[in-house]
Write a structure and sequence with these properties.
Largest sheet: 5 strands, mixed
Structural class: alpha/beta
Order of helices and strands: EHHEEHEEEEEEEEEH
Strand content: 25-35%
Helix content: 10-25%
Number of strands: 12
Number of helices: 4
């Protein structure tokens, strides 16, 4: 069972977090439960409220709806792109605020760490005008692919210390 934060529900509805909580208070959304003093919405319960209400426009990405189930995919655009030895990488922020790096291609990202407050997502890399950043400007990353780190370490010069410097 997927649990959604208030931020994620607000993103799906295209409204503010305060509006989500007002809709809970007036009964237009189901009551969340709390985890670590933060509200969590069960996706199985809140999705029908969102998708079956003709007055609500779903704005959180893409969804597939069948008679038995609904699958939702967050769509995230990269905030930056980064050139690592001739290969472009997308630097993006998930809805929970964590930063990630994946190859520069539009793709379904299903390998985000399970301990994060985020869903699998679709990374949309169609905008070539995404700002470029340098290696030094990369934010603290919560995840990346193995290929990124392998290339990163192959191109990062080893640091010099007294033990590795040859005597003159």
């Amino acid at each position: 069972m997927i649990q959604l934060t208030t931020t994620q529900v607000a993103h799906w509805l295209g409204v503010s977090e305060k509006t989500v909580m007002r809709r809970v208070q007036d009964g237009r959304l189901p009551k969340p439960w709390t985890y670590r003093n933060r509200p969590r919405f069960s996706a199985d319960i809140v999705l029908p409220f969102i998708l079956d209400d003709p007055d609500v426009k779903f704005s959180g990405g893409l969804y597939l709806k069948t008679d038995d189930d609904v699958i939702v995919f967050e769509v995230v655009k990269p905030k930056y792109r980064f050139d690592n030895s001739g290969t472009w990488w997308a630097v993006f922020q998930a809805l929970d605020g964590t930063w990630h790096v994946r190859p520069w291609k539009t793709a379904y990202v299903m390998d985000l760490p399970s301990d994060l407050d985020t869903l699998d997502l679709i990374l949309d890399c169609r905008d070539e005008a995404t700002p470029e950043i340098t290696r030094e400007e990369l934010p603290d990353l919560s995840s990346s692919t193995w290929a990124f780190w392998k290339r990163w370490h192959e191109t990062t010069p080893a640091t010099c210390n007294e033990e590795t410097v040859a005597p003159a």
